[in-house]
Amino acid sequence: MEVDKGKGEAEETRKVAEADRDTVTLKSSDGKLFEVSKEAAARLSTVLAGMIAGGSIDDNGTDLKQIGSEALENVVDYCNKHANSIPSAALISSSISFNTAPFKEPEEWERKFVDRLSHDALFDLVEAANFLGMERLLDVTCHKISEMMKGKSPDQIREVFNIKNDYTKEELEEIRQELAWAFYDD
Amino acid sequence: MPEGPVAKKPASPAGDPFAALPDAILQHILSFLPAQPAVRTCVLARRWRRLWEGMPGLRITAANAPEPPCAPDDLVSSGELRDGAPLDSCEFLFDVREDADVPHVNLWIRHVIRCQVRRLKLSITREDDPSGICFHVDNLPLVSRHLRRLELYDTELNDSFLDFSGCPGLEELVIYNGGFERAKRISSKSVKRLSVLDCSFNERRRTLIDVPSLISLQLEDPWDRTPVLGSMPLLVAASVRLGTGSITSLDWCYSSDSGIANGTSKNKSVLLNGLSEAKSLVLIAESRKFILKRDVKCCPIFTKLKTLLINDYWCVPPDFRELACLLEHSPVLEKLTIQIFSKGPEHKVEINGSYSPMEGSAAISENLRIIEVKCEVVDEGVLKVLDFLQTLNIGYLTMSICLALYISAFCDHICK
């Protein structure tokens, strides 16, 4: 929380006020403003943490031109929900915790959070999480997509996600032979 | 003129939502899938052809297949699987039905090690085995510069495998329900965090945990002979729980300690010496376990110990010798928590006291500022502990708090 010296007093007061605020304002590509807890934003997003530490947060709304308002709303919603769920998380990891802990299954609230999203919203959120360096949100959203693929044949996956098959029949046959073990029980 | 429903995202009119995502994200998604379905995505479209080869994580499970995921032979022989692309993580989560498959699965593990895996988890069961045998890892050391974290579940271990000198980057080791019957020691110069949970050890000799770089240790419910801890000069935090919930144990008081087979003399410390450098300790034991009580007879000095959590195991009237000994050997202790007849984490009664240094006895740490006693009811046992603390002149409760405590305890008795 550095304060620029040598500027007008009013400016300085404003800066101080800004530094003291415990929220940051984010602006979506379509110009909508969202407020999010500074602490949660810094903890969950490496990019926002960098911007907050580097003082490049704009009081009138930090421009996030790559993120639409729907995705940004979900990001902010996730940050707020995450902030509220800290006590339970702290309880779980009461014993000795490991730094490079592997992926932990989504918690109940995280499941609900991604379950209510439409396809488009889910994928937009993956992009936003990737852009903002939000590791946990990226894990939870990618995990959700993997769940949607689980137990489905390639044909069914193509249908669900609208993936266009650009292989020729011969190519497909070749791959299936090459990787026969993966298609064992087909 | 709009044709059809208005596309929400004009950027990807085709509607393939993956189109907007980079390959790395697709691979991240694939790494949540079991190996077989992940590999099968190669037929979705040209873009997916080689994605699986570079995915950071491999989950080999039987979730989607009735049989073991695929004959391990096939995966190994299916060529230089993941040629060159280092693996971030790999999990083996399946059941091996046939004895004949065990060597194949072990080959597979070796193969994954060759793929420079950084985090490896083995959770391989033998559920159909009538004798309930765990999965046996082969009798060879792992060699990898890349392995950083290893998790072993339900695995039968041996000395060669547990010699991690070939894995100089291994920092975290988690062993859950492991079989150490044939293992004389775990040794690693690099491991910093170790959890040994619910593992069964040899009936006659003590396994040595020789992990000198350890920073944090979690040892819970070892069966049969409690393992011996080697020197751990860098240790910061350790949690040792003995006997709470384990079904059998030879280290109960009624069994004489005949673990001299490997030269462990009766007076040699099993656990406490190894823990002597810790800053924070949890020492919980079931009352019949004698190991810690015997250890405390030749108690080391806990020169760095700041916080200590113990249970009623340490509070044995009339002389509270063990508790006194622990406190006298903890010269810089700042916080003491005693859980009495209560396993936690929820305690019905919490008594917080603050220590007033003026009243302290010379033998007790001058830094001891906080003492918590957690119990379900303030019964006679608790009062005895408090009495003891008083007679030892720790004076941890200022008079007023003490009085309040006695009153509440008294009321409790009346209510009954």
Automatic annotation (TrEMBL), chain A:
SKP1 component POZ domain spans which residues?
23-84
Instruction: Please state every residue range assigned to the domain named SKP1 component dimerisation.
Output: 136-182
- Keywords in alphabetical order, please: Ubl conjugation pathway
Q: What is the lineage of its organism?
A: Eukaryota, Viridiplantae, Streptophyta, Embryophyta, Tracheophyta
InterPro entries from the xrefs? SKP1 (IPR016897), SKP1-like (IPR001232), SKP1-like_dim_sf (IPR036296), SKP1/BTB/POZ_sf (IPR011333), Skp1_comp_dimer (IPR016072), Skp1_comp_POZ (IPR016073)
Q: Which family does it belong to?
A: Belongs to the SKP1 family.
Tell me the SUPFAM superfamilies matching this sequence: POZ domain, Skp1 dimerisation domain-like
Protein name, entry field: SKP1-like protein
Please cite one Gene Ontology biological process associated with this protein.
Answer: ubiquitin-dependent protein catabolic process
Metabolic or biological pathway, per its Swiss-Prot or TrEMBL entry: Protein modification; protein ubiquitination
Per the record, a Pfam family? Skp1
Provide the assembly information: Part of a SCF (SKP1-cullin-F-box) protein ligase complex.
Region annotated Disordered, chain positions: 1-21
Organism encoding this protein: Digitaria exilis
State its role.
Involved in ubiquitination and subsequent proteasomal degradation of target proteins. Together with CUL1, RBX1 and a F-box protein, it forms a SCF E3 ubiquitin ligase complex. The functional specificity of this complex depends on the type of F-box protein. In the SCF complex, it serves as an adapter that links the F-box protein to CUL1.
UniProtKB/TrEMBL annotation, chain B:
InterPro entries, per this entry? Answer: F-box-like_dom_sf, F-box_AtFBL13-like, F-box_dom, F-box_SCFL_complex_component
List, alphabetically, the SUPFAM superfamilies matched. F-box domain, RNI-like
User: What is the protein name for this chain?
Assistant: F-box domain-containing protein
Q: Where is the F-box domain?
A: 21-55
The protein's organism comes out as: Digitaria exilis
Q: Which PANTHER family match?
A: OS11G0201299 PROTEIN, OS11G0205900 PROTEIN
Which Gene3D superfamilies does this UniProt record tie to the protein? 1.20.1280.50
For this protein's source organism, the top of the classification is: Eukaryota, Viridiplantae, Streptophyta, Embryophyta, Tracheophyta
List the keywords (alphabetical): Membrane, Transmembrane, Transmembrane helix
- From which residue to which does any coiled coil extend? none
Q: Which residues cross the membrane?
A: 394-415
